[in-house]
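Typical record is below.
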Amino acid sequence: MKANAIPHYDDSINTTGCCPKFNPDGWDRQELHFTDKPFVRATTRSVMHIPLNVGQVFTRVQTHIGGTGVIDPDNFLILSRDLSPWRVEHLFATDKNVPDEEMTTLSGDFITKVFEGPYKEAKEWHEQMQKLVRASGKEPGRIFFFYTTCPRCAKAYGKNYTVGVAETLAT
């Protein structure tokens, strides 16, 4: 995949009025290459990894991103990773500076894997991502997850897809 490209996010089916039904085609085992790829950075609070204010933070950030006119299904990705049992970092892909939000960039090589199941399996998915990277002859760096739908929409669609995105470091 070319630098800073993200697999297409098919948002054509949305029967909930909230999250589109995730189509995993084209997301599994992809190699992503980022060079100063811009992201909005936000954090949420948790209690022992249980999220507290995700809805409020996501609504704010997506409203700000929408106000810039940069919502694009070929550039839709939200990377999340636990910084501690109390705090989660979220990176929202964008191509432009988003006023009133913290901006950051991401550079490096990453590999993806699609998982399906309850969020409580995230610890196992994290371990599987590390094994996947090592199997490619690299060392794992940061591991993010793209939670493709909220819990309510996952229940409505009958599938709960999560995309693991692992940084691959030279050995």
About this structure: The longest helix spans residues 54-67. The first strand starts at residue 31 and ends at 47. The beta strands are 31-47, 50-51, 78-84, 87-93, 102-116, 139-147, 161-169. The chain has a mean pLDDT of 93.
